[in-house]
């Protein structure tokens, strides 16, 4: 039994790797290479939503760690780095406020032309000025600190995720209203997804979480909170969860007959009554993110193993 448990744990730790931030002792922080390219601003936002920053080669150690991380990940350079001209011509600084001129990199030449606003780094350690609209891979960096306390139950540093033993998932209530797409983006960056309600028990968990924290209201449209299903094909009324599951295989208790919204982009939600309903693209609401507790977002394997045995 113990053997099986060890094997399962190792498999589990292996599965988690693809999503993971990897610790680097030289920089006392975690790096995560994002292979899928984004524009500079989207890359900045992605790292921000992951509670990290778009990495910059502000020290020799960070520069080396970044170059190694890219080599290991097997992607091609250049990558975006977290340096941008901020409000003042010629004032290039990292997100953390370190000026480009103070970094251990060769200041790039532009041979008389106006440099672009964003910056990238190439394999030969050179940084260059880049348009912010190009699409490049990038690295997010999270600095370690004494304040950080790892949430082992949910596999993240975010203390707002709570494990629920009834459903076996972790949940976080977001009290900043966002559109359905914006909400889903936040949940994905946090290593989860908009809550997918599988059964009555989970519907109760989600409704209680919403009711506990939010002002009491009638069972009105106001209380429609985003959840993880939508109409994948608006003309054909193809309601599926964000993971592609058919609605009759998950919680499927509707407030209204859903057939009236043909041809309209419709995004899923749950009312205070626990019934499902839909909202439009622009509608903003509070929402609950769900996260698989088995996915450890930061590499902490020794500690995880130590905790289990
Ligand atoms: C710099 O600009 C000058 C004048 O436009 C050009 O002749 C020269 O080849 C350029 N040098 C480089 C390295 O691009
Ligand atoms: C992060 O910093 C704390 C406090 O300095 C330290 O105890 C901990 O070991 C560090 N984390 C890792 C993964 O080294
Ligand atoms: C709830 O609904 C009832 C009847 O529709 C109404 O009288 C009452 O004012 C509503 N309460 C709130 C807080 O909206």
Q: What does the model show?
A:
The protein has 309 residues and is an alpha+beta fold. The chain has 2 domains: 20-144, Mannose-Binding Protein A, Chain A; 162-291, Mannose-Binding Protein A, Chain A (Roll). Helix content is 23%, strand content 27%. It is built from 6 helices and 16 strands. The chain has helices spanning 2-16, 40-49, 60-73, 180-189, 200-213, 301-308; strands at 22-24, 29-38, 53-54, 79-85, 92-94, 118-121, 127-130, 136-143, 162-164, 169-179, 193-194, 225-231, 239-241, 267-270, 276-279, 284-291. The strands form 4 sheets. Strands 1-2-8-3 form a 4-stranded antiparallel β-sheet, sandwiched between helices. It is elongated, with a radius of gyration of 22 Å. The two termini are 13 Å apart. InterPro entries: C-type_lectin-like, C-type_lectin-like/link_sf, C-type_lectin/snaclec_domain, CTDL_fold. Residues 1-18 form the signal peptide. Residues 166-290 form the C-type lectin domain. It comes from Spodoptera frugiperda (Fall armyworm). Keywords: Signal.
């Amino acid at each position: 039994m113990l053997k099986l448990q060890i094997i399962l744990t190792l498999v589990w730790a292996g599965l988690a790797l693809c999503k993971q931030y990897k610790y680097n002792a030289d920089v006392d922080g975690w790096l995560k290479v994002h292979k899928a390219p984004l524009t500079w601003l989207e890359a900045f936002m992605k790292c921000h939503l992951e509670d990290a920053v778009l990495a910059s080669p502000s020290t020799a150690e960070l520069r080396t760690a970044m170059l190694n991380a890219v080599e290991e990940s097997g992607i091609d350079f250049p990558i975006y780095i977290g340096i941008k001209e901020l409000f003042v011509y010629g004032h290039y600084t990292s997100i953390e406020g370190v000026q480009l001129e103070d970094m251990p990199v060769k200041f790039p030449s532009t041979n008389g032309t106006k440099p672009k606003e964003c910056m990238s780094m190439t394999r030969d350690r050179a940084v260059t000025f880049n348009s912010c609209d190009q699409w490049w891979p990038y690295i997010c960096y999270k600095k370690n600190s004494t304040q950080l306390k790892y949430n082992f139950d949910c596999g993240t540093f975010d203390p707002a995720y709570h494990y629920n033993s009834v459903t076996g998932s972790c949940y976080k209530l977001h009290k900043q209203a966002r559109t359905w797409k914006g909400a889903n983006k936040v949940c994905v960056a946090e290593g989860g997804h908009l809550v997918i309600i599988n059964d009555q028990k989970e519907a109760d968990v989600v409704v209680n979480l919403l009711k506990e924290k939010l002002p009491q209201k009638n069972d009105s449209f106001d209380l429609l909170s985003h959840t993880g299903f939508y109409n994948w094909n608006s003309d054909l009324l193809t309601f599926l969860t964000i993971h592609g599951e058919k609605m009759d295989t998950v919680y499927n208790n509707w407030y209204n007959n859903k057939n009236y919204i043909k041809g309209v982009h419709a995004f899923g939600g749950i009312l205070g009554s626990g019934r499902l309903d839909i909202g439009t693209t622009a509608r903003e609401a509070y929402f609950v993110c769900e996260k698989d507790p088995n996915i450890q977002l930061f590499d902490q394997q020794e500690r995880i193993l130590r905790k289990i045995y």
